[in-house]
Hints:
alpha/beta, four-stranded parallel beta sheet, single chain, 6 domains, Arc Repressor Mutant, subunit A, globular, five-stranded mixed beta sheet
Amino acid sequence: xxxxxxxxxxxxxxxxxxxxxxxxxxxxxxxxxxxxxxxxxxxxxxxxxxxxxxxxxxxxxxxxxxxxxxxxxxxxxxxxxxxxxxxxxxxxxxxxxxxxxxxxxxxxxxxxxxxxxxxxxxxxxxxxxxxxxxxxxxxxxxxxxxxxxxxxxxxxxxxxxxxxxxxxxxxxxxxxxxxxxxxxxxxxxxxxxxxxxxxxxxxxxxxxxxxxxxxxxxxxxxxxxxxxxxxxxxxxxxxxxxxxxxxxxxxxxxxxxxxxxxxxxxxxxxxxxxxxxxxxxxxxxxxxxxxxxxxxxxxxxxxxxxxxxxxxxxxxxxxxxxxxxxxxxxxxxxxxxxxxxxxxxxxxxxxxxxxxxxxxxxxxxxxxxxxxxxxxxxxxxxxxxxxxxxxxxxxxxxxxxxxxxxxxxxxxxxxxxxxxxxxxxxxxxxxxxxxxxxxxxxxxxxxxxxxxxxxxxxxxxxxxxxxxxxxxxxxxxxxxxxxxxxxxxxxxxxxxxxxxxxxxxxxxxxxxxxxxxxxxxxxxxxxxxxxxxxxxxxxxxxxxxxxxxxxxxxxxxxxxxxxxxxxxxxxxxxxxxxxxxxxxxxxxxxxxxxxxxxxxxxxxxxxxxxxxxxxxxxxxxxxxxxxxxxxxxxxxxxxx
Length: 640
């Protein structure tokens, strides 16, 4: 027996009662078919013992026998299992990593039969793993496909490398640059060492990179190197890079790939170097003094104008906002065109504390998708949300981050550089030493960061970090920044919904006794709006694509799906009230609200979104809404 079957024996013996096969399958992360196959193995094995295995469809599986007999058999098989040659048995995450490594990275063709025998699981379980992988890499336009016996991933080199990098970034728990242990799950040691040597923390060009770029850039470098080691190269010449740092990136690409090639006795093609140069540009690996690409200025101006229309007010210090967006947007577009990934470490805090502003930013920036044929991501939009948050709150005194050092020299400059690149652009800093701290005016300081400072007595929030500024320090600083400098403004005003009350239509409020899942709920809403003629043919596709990119539900138990404004003809708000909640990612959702706002109604979007969030911002209010009896009750609540 393999380890899973021994564990199954222990599980069943401990209970002595019928356990449904579905519950066992969920517990062991396999299909029910695999559980029944394991039960057959146990049945044959237990024939020579005093225990009896019962398998009854509809009831489940149980082991009968006295407690002493069960304990004796368990000890016997546990001892035998420890002495046998271990079977290669992985949990689902490990299996999926192995599938991506062998099929996508290494270009192998694997049969379902050999994988089933290798991992002692059913072919159904393997195909379920493939489905999960394909959902993760969908944006890369590559899928692992089965012809009934083999698993294959074939496509253009750009899609293969993008798919591999996408999975590796998403499968990481920490997304920590230089994570040798994690990288070794996918790549040979010699490849990991040769690539990470290039990303030397002492190199000035590397120190200046934000930490969330470092990890992603290391991943795509490892993927390209491993593919080249396996004999896979880019062959088609790429279009010229349309960023101001093109020449600098091309020189860096030539230098870096030549060094890796010398170490691994590997020859990169000209097209390989062009692709890598594009990646360097996409991750802003260039000197800040390189002038911004002015061809993007009309796009930036349009984006700012759209957000001003949404907010119903002009931005102060617009030149500073334009400079920030000129720095970020061109690289973002290039990343998304290539399917590259950046994870924003502040994303969860932004989405939780500023859901309305996050939604408004999505609405304002959505025109870029059609214009540049890209698909926006939650992480990319959350970066832009930060810029707009700072611009909107210019009237509020900006609180600074005060950094206190207990040492001098090069390490001090290194830590200061790391802090600046970890926190959002626009953050204002002061720095001092411990001796001079008492003379600092703290009236506009929102957070004090002590580098190797034992402690501090101050009314201003204080955190201590080490001079090494490791992953724990980075996480601590980000949480403090989110808690003390990105806090939602609270209000005790009585709730009312002036815009929503004018738009709500009783014919677009639906009460459903049961909806099977999120997909069925969305399809229902799409059909309603298509039948009404209020949306274009592309509405459903846009709505479903947005759902795949990131969560649209909020913790109070409400889902707020939305589609690109270009796909909307008529201004409307649809309510779907569920008597039984459905799983929306990891949240039980009771209410679905779909706001459809076309571009020509952009001025109303801000107030409408705020009304909706005020209506459903906490669980108590949502439960009250769920308890309403009919449409008239809901209309009374909104109109009151």
